Amino acid sequence: MKRTAIMAACLLSFGIIMGACSDDKTSEAKHDHSMTYTTNSGDIRETTKSIDHLPTFLSNFEEDMAVLYQQAAKHKDLLEHIPCYCGCGEAAGHKNNYDCFVYETRKNGSVVWDDHATKCGVCLDIAAESIAAYEHGKSIKEIRQMIDEKYKEGYAEPTPTKSL
User: Fold this and answer.
1) pTM as predicted
2) Which keywords does this chain's UniProt record carry (predicted)?
3) Which of 64, 77, 92, 151 has its CA 20 to 30 A from that of 160?
4) 19, 71, 81, 95, 123 from 136: Cα distances, Å
């Protein structure tokens, strides 16, 4: 219960901080989708033409989820250095927290989104905390240390995230 309340507060805070970034691009999520499939681990992957076009699976969630997904995509350089502690490294083959949101960004700019984070509070919390800290001037190294310290006990093994 406590973790759910913290997650809700974190997402709400993140939504307020980053709300200006959403500028109604969630309505574009209904267009330009070329492929959707389900992985062996049960995650849905959906391709859109760019990070500005969100996947349709987000239409089942509150706007804060779409805002966080878009911010995660825009913070690739950060989140690729931040491990996830939900067990997705082993269960889904993820290498970092970015993989919980985006499977692949292709050379043509299209994006293959992953719905894993929509089902996982740990993934959401790590991304929201990391992006908020980054926006407040923390370095990637400081954020990595903060996340590693916070999630070192009581969570799954971290993803095999590349070191800084």
Assistant:
1) 0.80
2) Signal
3) 64
4) 16, 15, 17, 25, 20
Helix (H) or strand (E) holding 48: strand 44-48
How far apart are alpha carbons 88 and 158 in whole angstroms?
Answer: 8
Sheet holding 33-38, edge to edge: 33-38, 44-48, 111-114, 102-105
Q: Is 115 helix (H, G, I), strand (E, B) or coil?
A: coil
* E strand or H helix that includes residue 34: strand 33-38
Task: Give residue for tokens 């509150």.
Answer: 62
Separation CA 63–CA 46 (nearest Å): 18
Provide the 8-state DSSP code for 108.
T
Give the pLDDT confidence of 52-75 residue by residue, as tens digits. 999 999 999 999 999 999 999 999
